[in-house]
UniProtKB/TrEMBL annotation, chain A:
<dbReference type="InterPro" id="IPR050768">
    <property type="entry name" value="UPF0353/GerABKA_families"/>
</dbReference>
<dbReference type="Pfam" id="PF03323">
    <property type="entry name" value="GerA"/>
</dbReference>
<keyword id="KW-0472">Membrane</keyword>
<dbReference type="InterPro" id="IPR004995">
    <property type="entry name" value="Spore_Ger"/>
</dbReference>
<keyword id="KW-1133">Transmembrane helix</keyword>
<feature type="transmembrane region" description="Helical">
    <location>
        <begin position="382"/>
        <end position="401"/>
    </location>
</feature>
<feature type="region of interest" description="Disordered">
    <location>
        <begin position="478"/>
        <end position="499"/>
    </location>
</feature>
<keyword id="KW-0812">Transmembrane</keyword>
<comment type="similarity">
    <text>Belongs to the GerABKA family.</text>
</comment>
TrEMBL record, chain B:
<keyword id="KW-0812">Transmembrane</keyword>
<feature type="transmembrane region" description="Helical">
    <location>
        <begin position="144"/>
        <end position="161"/>
    </location>
</feature>
<feature type="transmembrane region" description="Helical">
    <location>
        <begin position="73"/>
        <end position="93"/>
    </location>
</feature>
<comment type="similarity">
    <text>Belongs to the amino acid-polyamine-organocation (APC) superfamily. Spore germination protein (SGP) (TC 2.A.3.9) family.</text>
</comment>
<keyword id="KW-0813">Transport</keyword>
<feature type="transmembrane region" description="Helical">
    <location>
        <begin position="113"/>
        <end position="132"/>
    </location>
</feature>
<dbReference type="InterPro" id="IPR004761">
    <property type="entry name" value="Spore_GerAB"/>
</dbReference>
<feature type="transmembrane region" description="Helical">
    <location>
        <begin position="260"/>
        <end position="282"/>
    </location>
</feature>
<keyword id="KW-0309">Germination</keyword>
Length: 499, 361
């Protein structure tokens, strides 16, 4: 409990915040009354503090004719209420909590209470274009590290009270704010309850990124495939929750989690929905092909050259064989080496500071592309195969999907080297069986292809015109899955009187 | 574990296509020569009848499997005894399919790889699929792989059109005659008759009332492709096909388009592998689940290990491909399994079951 004597309270608080150089204690005399301001430097809008709170108190003193008012805190509260949300607290622990949550605590002589005012004002990044998901056409705003900015970006797009945002905190030390957002009436209750339960179940000391949450709530922790989607784009979050999915905002990270995730989301880029559907369909088809190439191409090459040369047309086979002449390694080893180097180059390119990053790729291209081939250590075809695979893996719109496939390429390559096509088919079927049995928050991973939901295929292998997508995905959304009324195909005749 | 009617359709279709197209064709052409496609038509109608009987039987007790309703129809002990032939069928045929498919892979792709390695990989696949997903997972696999198989077969047939000469089916009927054509129908019939396993599957359906039409369509689709590929093979090779081990496969080898699409046989092997994979997983599931129900074991997954061990040993038993691909079908499957398991027991159960239901009313 707070004491009426401010100096006693101060001693206790100073004890709590011992060695916390960023916690500021400021005593002032407003008239004859001693006041103590406690806040964390850098988390408070000091300009606001000086001008709106301190200046009136110091220079103008207490407002006249206020003797009959119950307490000083009442006056301060009344004065402050104009600028900030204020709360009266009575416990030391509440004061400490308020200070740590970037609020201003005001303790006043003679009263066993303190005021906690919300004067938040820390530095934050402005809304910028998202770095991980880029679109030529589409909104340019991306999430920032500030939770409230992020939720506001979503609220601005869905201006309906049906958009709910439930907040909670996770992490015994970090006390990170988490917001679960969904659209009431569209979301499936079973999924929502599952999300709530899984988030509440988390016991951890700190949450520094949404990846922490992801690892605790995902369905299949050992699977290489992600069952939780992350995005930096507010429009993706809006589109997803309008399909009945649930978004999880975590403070201090621009990455928002979306559940449930299905396999096909991996091929859907935001721009598909902003460009004309014909082009989107075409691009999606290319993506599907590249996606499979990024997994199968090196292994098929190895299998075909070592086990089934009859698969390759004769002329091509001759040129491959000629290029491979004098290369000391078998094709598998060569492919594994090159894939390994490629992954290394990519990692080096990402992690290094930008100016050096480009140097890495130049060196990599020169050394491996030119010198190694000329020296006869590796063959030119494998360079082509590996670089094509690399390009193919970059064409996957969702980064974490690409990671899964990049990893699975290696066991497949290994089996291709041992058993040829049969090995490739074996690994492919193993992956397939795994995928078929995956679930994300109760939703089968391969819906709507397996289990088949015929009406929902409009957004999977191709992108149908918007006026034909009248229903939301059946398994994902709850009861009301009607999106728009039918018969909206644009035509010059529509709307006119037919004569 | 529930399966949808779409899944039943694709399960039946994709399971039937692979082995039938690969193995039932050449004995049939041997008997009926260029009229083998008529044999296929006869086999198709006979098999559709089998499916009809089997599905009608399982619809008497739509939420139960063969093991359960046979005990209701014939009483506990008699019901348990009468399904023993089915266990014999399931266990042996799973082993034999595993062996036959591995033999085929061995001959077609890997002459130097040890046979047991091929068998082991296939075994891992089927155990993984069955253990992880049960009938639901297998259903989803077939739902996805089924269309892939159908599309691939269609593409291959279209690509082979160039090598076909329609005069090779002439003269129709004259050369072989009715008896030979009927004899030629036996082999495809014995393969397609495996769809009697529907008695174990209807119990899992969420909408059993759709079982009859979907199962018939599924088997029907497989039959259409069987007839199509048989015609294709006859049009390409004539009666020469009877001397080939895998005539359909050789027809694919013959494909050459624009000097570039050649030797696509290895691709077809992979597609065909998908069909066999579904068939093997289905048999593994049925054998394990059936055994569990028969013995009263609650966790049927435990029995997968038992089943797969037996299947692995059975697959290694035959000395060579002749034993698995010729002796087993002609000496065991056709004289015993076809009349007893595919015709006799289902008909008996259906008759007794229907009479019992009538009496109960």
């Amino acid at each position: 409990m707070l004491d009426t004597d401010v100096s006693i309270n101060e001693r206790v608080l100073r004890g709590v915040f011992q060695n916390c150089s960023d916690v500021i204690f400021r005593s002032i005399m407003a008239g004859k009354i001693k006041m103590l301001f406690v806040y964390v430097d850098g988390l408070i809008d000091t300009k606001m503090l000086d001008q709106v709170v301190l200046k009136p108190l110091l220079f103008e003193g207490m407002p006249n004719g206020m003797e009959r008012v119950r307490s000083v805190s009442q006056i301060v509260k009344d004065q402050l209420i104009a600028i900030a949300e204020t709360k009266v607290v009575h416990k030391i622990s509440e004061v400490v909590e308020g200070v740590l949550k970037s609020k201003l605590a005001i303790l006043i002589e003679g009263e066993g209470a303190a005021l906690v005012a919300d004067l938040k004002g820390f530095e934050k990044r402005s809304v910028e274009e998202p770095a991980a998901e880029i679109a030529v056409r589409g909104p340019r705003d991306g999430f920032t590290e500030t939770l409230r900015v992020n939720t506001a970006l979503v609220r601005r797009r869905i201006r309906s009270p049906k958009l709910k945002m439930e907040s909670s905190t996770v992490g015994s030390l970090s006390q990170t704010d988490i917001v679960i957002a969904y659209v009431e009436g569209i979301v499936q209750d079973s999924v929502l309850n599952e999300v709530r339960e899984r988030v509440q179940r988390i016991q951890i000391d700190s949450v520094l990124e949404s990846g922490y949450i992801e690892e605790f709530i995902e369905d299949h922790p050992y699977s290489p495939f992600p069952t939780v989607q992350n995005t930096e784009r507010p429009d993706v979050v809006c589109a997803s929750i309008l399909e009945g999915k649930v978004a999880i905002f975590v403070d201090n990270t621009p990455f928002v989690l979306i559940v449930p995730l299905t396999f096909w989301t991996g091929f859907q880029a935001v721009e598909d929905y902003y460009e004309r559907f014909g082009y989107s369909t075409f691009i999606r088809f290319i993506r599907l092909v590249l996606f499979n190439m990024s997994l199968f191409f090196p292994s098929l090459f190895v299998a075909a050259t070592t086990f089934h040369p009859q698969l390759i047309p004769t002329n091509l086979l001759i040129s491959i064989a000629a290029a491979r002449e004098g290369v000391p390694f078998p094709a598998v080893v060569e492919a594994l080496l090159m894939e390994f180097m490629f992954e290394g180059l990519r990692e080096a390119g990402i992690r290094l500071p930008k100016p050096i990053g480009s140097a890495v790729s130049i060196v990599g291209a020169l050394v491996i592309g030119e010198a190694a081939v000329q020296a006869g250590i590796i063959s030119a075809p494998i360079v082509i195969v590996v670089s094509t695979t690399g390009i193919a893996s970059f064409a996957i719109p969702r980064y974490n999907f690409g990671i899964a496939y990049r990893m699975l390429r290696f066991p497949m390559l290994f089996m291709a080297g041992m058993m040829g096509l049969y090995g490739v088919a074996f690994v492919a079927l193993m992956i397939f069986i795994h995928l078929v049995n995956l679930r994300s928050f109760g939703i089968p991973y391969l819906t709507p292809v397996a289990p088949q939901i015929p009406g929902n295929l409009k957004d999977i292998f191709w992108r149908s015109p918007r006026w034909t997508m009248t229903h939301r995905p059946a398994l994902i959304s709850g009861k009301s899955n009607k999106r728009l009324p039918e018969g909206q195909k644009p035509s010059p005749k529509r709307g006119r009187n037919s004569k | 574990m529930k399966i949808s009617s779409v899944q039943i359709f694709w399960m039946m279709a994709s399971m039937e296509i692979g082995m039938t197209v690969l193995l039932s064709m050449s004995p049939s052409i041997g008997d009926a020569k260029q009229d083998a496609w008529i044999s296929m038509l006869i086999a198709t109608s006979a098999v559709l009848l089998i499916v009809f009987i089997a599905t009608k039987l399982s619809l008497l007790y739509p939420n139960q499997t063969l093991i359960q309703f046979s005990q209701i129809i014939l009483g506990k002990w008699l019901g348990k005894i009468i399904v023993i032939p089915f266990f014999v069928m399931w266990y042996t045929v799973t082993g034999i399919i595993l062996r036959q498919s591995s033999d085929f892979l061995h001959l077609a792709l890997f002459r130097r790889t040890p046979l047991w390695a091929i068998i082991l990989l296939a075994l891992i696949l089927m155990v993984y699929a069955t253990y992880l997903g049960g009938i639901e997972g297998i259903g989803r696999c077939s739902e996805f792989l089924g269309p892939v198989i159908i599309i691939a077969l269609t593409v291959v047939l279209v690509l082979s059109v160039k090598n076909m000469h329609w005069t090779r089916i002439l003269p129709v009927y004259h050369d072989s005659g009715g008896a030979a054509i009927l004899k030629g129908a036996i082999s495809p019939f014995s393969f397609l008759g495996e769809s009697v396993m529907i008695t174990m599957l209807v119990g899992f359906m969420s909408k059993p009332q759709e079982a009859l039409s979907r199962a018939m369509w599924g088997v029907g689709l497989a039959c259409v492709f069987l007839i199509g590929t048989t015609l294709g093979v006859i049009l390409t090779f004539g009666s020469l096909a009877a001397k080939m081990w895998y005539p359909f496969f050789d027809m694919v080898r013959y494909v050459s388009v624009m000097e570039f699409i050649q030797n696509i046989d290895a691709v077809i092997v992979v597609v065909w592998l998908c069909s066999v994979f579904i068939k093997l997983s289905l048999y593994t599931f049925i054998a394990s689940y059936g055994t569990a129900q028969w013995l009263g074991v609650t966790n049927w997954r435990k029995l997968i290990w038992f089943v797969s061990l037996i299947v692995f040993i059975l697959a290694l038993v035959p000395a060579n491909a002749d034993v698995s691909s010729i002796d087993y079908p002609t000496k065991f499957w056709v004289p015993y399994v076809v009349p007893i398991n595919m015709v006799g027991i289902p008909l008996l159960l259906l008759t007794v079951g229907t009479i019992r239901k009538k009496w109960a009313k």
